[in-house]
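Student: Send me a single protein entry containing the residue sequence and its fold in token form, directly below this note:

Tutor:
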Amino acid sequence: MTDLDQNTEQLIFRAARKVFTLKGYNGARMQEIADEAGINKALLHYYFRNKDKLFEGVFGDVLKTLFPGLTNILTADLPLFEKIPLFVCQYIDILTNNPEIAGFVLYELRLNPQRLVGNMRDIGIDMNLIRSQIESEVAAGIIRPVKPEHLIANLISMTIFPFIARPVLMSVAGMDEVHYTKFIEERKRIVPETIIQSLKPIQ
């Protein structure tokens, strides 16, 4: 592939990511992507023959933005109570820098959950490693008994909700951009504290 071809593919890919994350698979049109890239539709189809192929590439790229770093934290050789703040802080930073991807992934997950499952396997997310650590720390009396699925659901939902519900949250709470930014920074402390406190054994 020539440098020109590579540059054109990257141009199309960036345009496709912008259009797909804003409108989803069903709402996006190939003509819109061509317009966003500043090329004609025939050239777009030369590089990406169909919408499905282009979307799969974009969706996989978005998941790689979200998950690999988080997976490294969850599978690191660290106590669970150290992993939780690291996970939450990194997740919040990722979503702050890529605010459009939270709603995009959740919307596409509802329409086609198997697409997410397949991509997560490719990324290398192994729930067995996380499950093993939780079971070990439960057995050692470090944390209360908890299903790994609930812990992961709590971590993700408590972190992602303020980004999904941002307009409603800002309106109901009367927050402007400055206050919302401060609120998100506070979540880096509050979410881990809340989850860790819920996991500590009852004295």
Q: What stands out?
A: The chain has a mean pLDDT of 87.
